[in-house]
# Entry
Amino acid sequence: MLIPIRIVPLLPVSTELISSIVHPLRTVYQNEVSVEQPAAKIVDKTYDDSRAQFNSTLLISEMLRRYPYEQTKIIGITGVDLFVPILTYVFGEAQLDGPVSVISTYRLDDAVYGLPPDPALLFERTLKEAVHELGHNYGLYHCKNFDCAMHTSTTAEDIDQKGAALCNDCRKSLGL
# Structure
Protein backbone atom coordinates (compact mmCIF):
# COMPACT_ATOMS: atom_id res chain seq x y z
CA MET A 1 0.00 0.00 0.00
CA LEU A 2 1.18 3.52 -0.79
CA ILE A 3 1.62 6.28 1.76
CA PRO A 4 -1.83 7.81 2.60
CA ILE A 5 -2.98 11.07 1.02
CA ARG A 6 -4.13 14.20 2.87
CA ILE A 7 -5.91 16.94 0.92
CA VAL A 8 -5.56 20.45 2.34
CA PRO A 9 -8.08 23.01 1.01
CA LEU A 10 -6.12 26.25 0.62
CA LEU A 11 -8.63 29.07 0.66
CA PRO A 12 -10.09 30.30 -1.57
CA VAL A 13 -11.33 27.01 -3.01
CA SER A 14 -14.58 25.10 -3.28
CA THR A 15 -14.68 22.55 -0.48
CA GLU A 16 -17.51 20.77 -2.34
CA LEU A 17 -15.22 20.30 -5.34
CA ILE A 18 -12.51 18.91 -3.08
CA SER A 19 -14.94 16.51 -1.42
CA SER A 20 -15.99 15.24 -4.83
CA ILE A 21 -12.49 14.04 -5.76
CA VAL A 22 -11.83 12.04 -2.57
CA HIS A 23 -13.45 8.77 -3.68
CA PRO A 24 -11.94 8.83 -7.21
CA LEU A 25 -8.47 9.46 -5.73
CA ARG A 26 -8.98 6.52 -3.36
CA THR A 27 -9.85 4.38 -6.38
CA VAL A 28 -6.87 5.47 -8.51
CA TYR A 29 -4.28 5.10 -5.76
CA GLN A 30 -6.04 2.27 -3.85
CA ASN A 31 -5.27 4.24 -0.76
CA GLU A 32 -6.60 6.18 2.19
CA VAL A 33 -7.51 9.79 1.33
CA SER A 34 -8.56 12.33 3.96
CA VAL A 35 -9.47 16.01 3.84
CA GLU A 36 -8.02 18.43 6.38
CA GLN A 37 -9.72 21.55 7.68
CA PRO A 38 -9.45 24.45 5.20
CA ALA A 39 -6.31 26.51 5.69
CA ALA A 40 -6.37 30.28 5.38
CA LYS A 41 -3.48 32.70 4.95
CA ILE A 42 -0.97 30.16 3.63
CA VAL A 43 -1.65 31.21 0.05
CA ASP A 44 -1.44 34.94 0.87
CA LYS A 45 2.25 34.60 1.79
CA THR A 46 3.10 33.53 -1.76
CA TYR A 47 1.61 36.45 -3.72
CA ASP A 48 3.92 38.14 -6.23
CA ASP A 49 2.90 41.77 -6.89
CA SER A 50 4.89 42.01 -10.12
CA ARG A 51 2.98 39.09 -11.66
CA ALA A 52 -0.36 39.38 -9.82
CA GLN A 53 -0.13 35.62 -9.26
CA PHE A 54 0.90 33.20 -6.53
CA ASN A 55 4.24 31.37 -6.56
CA SER A 56 3.60 27.63 -6.40
CA THR A 57 7.14 26.79 -5.27
CA LEU A 58 6.81 29.15 -2.31
CA LEU A 59 3.41 27.65 -1.61
CA ILE A 60 4.99 24.19 -1.37
CA SER A 61 7.56 25.62 1.07
CA GLU A 62 4.77 27.09 3.19
CA MET A 63 2.95 23.75 3.13
CA LEU A 64 6.10 21.96 4.28
CA ARG A 65 6.40 24.35 7.22
CA ARG A 66 2.79 23.99 8.23
CA TYR A 67 2.41 20.27 7.59
CA PRO A 68 5.68 18.52 8.43
CA TYR A 69 6.25 15.17 6.80
CA GLU A 70 4.30 12.55 8.75
CA GLN A 71 4.30 9.55 6.41
CA THR A 72 1.61 11.10 4.22
CA LYS A 73 1.44 12.72 0.83
CA ILE A 74 -0.10 16.17 1.16
CA ILE A 75 -1.80 17.95 -1.72
CA GLY A 76 -2.92 21.54 -1.31
CA ILE A 77 -5.75 22.65 -3.57
CA THR A 78 -6.48 26.34 -4.14
CA GLY A 79 -8.46 28.53 -6.49
CA VAL A 80 -5.78 31.18 -7.09
CA ASP A 81 -3.62 31.58 -10.20
CA LEU A 82 -0.25 29.82 -9.74
CA PHE A 83 3.09 30.31 -11.48
CA VAL A 84 6.73 29.29 -11.37
CA PRO A 85 9.29 31.90 -12.45
CA ILE A 86 10.08 30.25 -15.79
CA LEU A 87 6.44 29.74 -16.85
CA THR A 88 3.47 32.05 -17.36
CA TYR A 89 1.29 29.79 -15.21
CA VAL A 90 1.04 26.25 -13.86
CA PHE A 91 -1.90 24.03 -13.02
CA GLY A 92 0.15 22.53 -10.23
CA GLU A 93 3.56 21.63 -8.92
CA ALA A 94 4.90 18.66 -6.96
CA GLN A 95 8.00 17.51 -5.22
CA LEU A 96 9.19 14.48 -7.15
CA ASP A 97 9.13 11.57 -4.71
CA GLY A 98 8.46 14.11 -1.96
CA PRO A 99 5.63 14.76 0.47
CA VAL A 100 3.93 17.91 -0.91
CA SER A 101 2.18 19.06 -4.07
CA VAL A 102 -0.22 21.88 -4.92
CA ILE A 103 -2.79 22.39 -7.64
CA SER A 104 -4.97 25.31 -8.64
CA THR A 105 -8.49 25.16 -10.00
CA TYR A 106 -8.15 28.71 -11.36
CA ARG A 107 -7.19 27.92 -14.97
CA LEU A 108 -9.17 24.67 -14.90
CA ASP A 109 -12.41 26.68 -14.76
CA ASP A 110 -13.93 27.59 -18.15
CA ALA A 111 -15.25 30.84 -16.62
CA VAL A 112 -11.65 32.17 -16.59
CA TYR A 113 -11.68 31.91 -20.40
CA GLY A 114 -14.98 33.76 -20.75
CA LEU A 115 -17.00 30.57 -21.22
CA PRO A 116 -20.01 29.46 -19.20
CA PRO A 117 -19.06 27.59 -16.01
CA ASP A 118 -19.05 23.81 -16.44
CA PRO A 119 -18.95 22.11 -13.01
CA ALA A 120 -18.58 18.61 -14.49
CA LEU A 121 -15.59 19.66 -16.60
CA LEU A 122 -14.03 21.49 -13.63
CA PHE A 123 -14.39 18.30 -11.56
CA GLU A 124 -12.72 16.19 -14.28
CA ARG A 125 -9.84 18.61 -14.74
CA THR A 126 -9.30 18.95 -10.99
CA LEU A 127 -9.26 15.18 -10.54
CA LYS A 128 -6.79 14.69 -13.41
CA GLU A 129 -4.44 17.33 -12.03
CA ALA A 130 -4.65 15.90 -8.51
CA VAL A 131 -3.84 12.41 -9.83
CA HIS A 132 -0.99 13.88 -11.89
CA GLU A 133 0.71 15.85 -9.11
CA LEU A 134 0.28 13.05 -6.57
CA GLY A 135 1.86 10.73 -9.14
CA HIS A 136 4.95 12.93 -9.02
CA ASN A 137 4.88 12.76 -5.21
CA TYR A 138 4.95 8.99 -5.50
CA GLY A 139 7.95 9.19 -7.87
CA LEU A 140 6.29 9.00 -11.29
CA TYR A 141 7.64 11.03 -14.21
CA HIS A 142 5.66 12.31 -17.19
CA CYS A 143 4.26 9.45 -19.24
CA LYS A 144 4.23 9.11 -23.03
CA ASN A 145 0.82 7.41 -22.96
CA PHE A 146 -1.69 10.08 -24.06
CA ASP A 147 -4.49 8.48 -22.01
CA CYS A 148 -2.50 8.42 -18.75
CA ALA A 149 -3.06 11.10 -16.11
CA MET A 150 0.75 11.38 -15.91
CA HIS A 151 0.92 12.67 -19.50
CA THR A 152 2.12 16.27 -19.51
CA SER A 153 -0.40 19.11 -19.97
CA THR A 154 0.32 22.72 -20.84
CA THR A 155 -3.25 23.82 -21.59
CA ALA A 156 -6.69 23.01 -20.23
CA GLU A 157 -7.45 21.33 -23.56
CA ASP A 158 -4.47 19.00 -23.03
CA ILE A 159 -5.97 17.99 -19.69
CA ASP A 160 -9.28 17.26 -21.41
CA GLN A 161 -7.57 14.84 -23.81
CA LYS A 162 -6.04 12.57 -21.18
CA GLY A 163 -7.63 10.17 -18.76
CA ALA A 164 -8.09 10.50 -15.00
CA ALA A 165 -6.41 7.15 -14.30
CA LEU A 166 -2.87 5.88 -14.44
CA CYS A 167 -1.82 3.67 -17.33
CA ASN A 168 -0.73 0.09 -16.68
CA ASP A 169 2.98 1.01 -16.77
CA CYS A 170 2.56 3.79 -14.18
CA ARG A 171 0.37 1.56 -12.01
CA LYS A 172 3.00 -1.17 -12.20
CA SER A 173 5.72 1.32 -11.20
CA LEU A 174 3.72 2.02 -8.03
CA GLY A 175 2.98 -1.63 -7.33
CA LEU A 176 -0.76 -1.23 -7.95
